[in-house]
Specification:
The chain is an alpha+beta fold and 80 residues long. It contains one helix and three strands, in the order E-E-E-H.
């Protein structure tokens, strides 16, 4: 599978994307002005799996927290 590392020129976010046909966009700002980075080799070990799982859980918690805040602001600012 073609996995590539990118850095967004707009916001500086670095991410990895599976690229089949289309060029990806930044998951942070949706920007399309990207630099393709030199990818490092993959290392699969118990510690890297644990580290990746911890990072994914933190990222998911941040998204859930941001969604709760956005939902609360929407409810507070709109009449039903």
């Amino acid at each position: 599978m073609p996995l590539y590392d990118y850095e967004c020129k707009s916001c500086g976010h670095r991410f990895e994307a599976l690229v089949l046909k289309n060029t990806p966009s930044c998951p942070e700002c949706s920007g399309a002005d990207l630099d393709q980075l030199i990818s490092l080799f993959a290392v699969d070990s118990e510690s890297t799996r644990h580290s990746n799982l911890q990072r994914a859980r933190r990222d998911n918690a941040k998204v859930a927290r941001d969604k709760k805040i956005a939902d609360a602001e929407y409810i507070r600012n709109h009449d039903h």
